[in-house]
Amino acid sequence: MILFFYNPNIWPKEECEKRMIEAEKIAKQFNLELIKGEYEHDKWLEAVRGHEADPEKGERCLICYEFRLQMAAAMAKKLNCDYLTTTLTTSPHKIATAINEIGEKLAAENDLKFLSQDFKKQDGFKKSSALSRELGLYRQNYCGCEFSLRK
Ligand code: SF4
Predict the structure, then answer these.
(1) 124 C-alpha vs ligand 1 centroid, how far in Å?
(2) Is the dihedral of CA 80, 84, 87, 88 positive or negative?
(3) What is the pLDDT of residues 12-36, one digit of tens each?
(4) Is ligand 1 within 6 A of the CB of residue 148?
(5) How far is the CA of 33 from the centre of ligand 1 (A)?
């Protein structure tokens, strides 16, 4: 299993770096390879232009899920992976059905299979919170982009 950290949606850059350090801790803990994607915040801003005022879980978020999953799918294909999935569905603030639909579509376009899951179910979110406390991980108090910070 390979972890791919690609979150150019996160603002400011220091916050993204902070979260990346936590991803490194997880990779180390579970002995997994971690690949770090580029911080292309300007490109991400361009993708969500016109949706800055959308509410969380609205159209901007759908664009954001797809933006990040597109890069993850391309990376998985490049690495000859069989499966693609995402930790995004662990959050109670994310729409699992939309994420899984986007994931299925992108996986098919890249000759991959998508592991369609809602990781928050069966106490998934509770377990992830407990694990992050156990490992002493930083827990953010906003989704990531500057527009979620203002709300
Ligand atoms: S609120 Fe979160 S999911 Fe929605 S656009 Fe911002 S960073 Fe992306």
Answers:
(1) 21
(2) positive
(3) 999 999 999 999 999 999 999 999 9
(4) yes
(5) 26
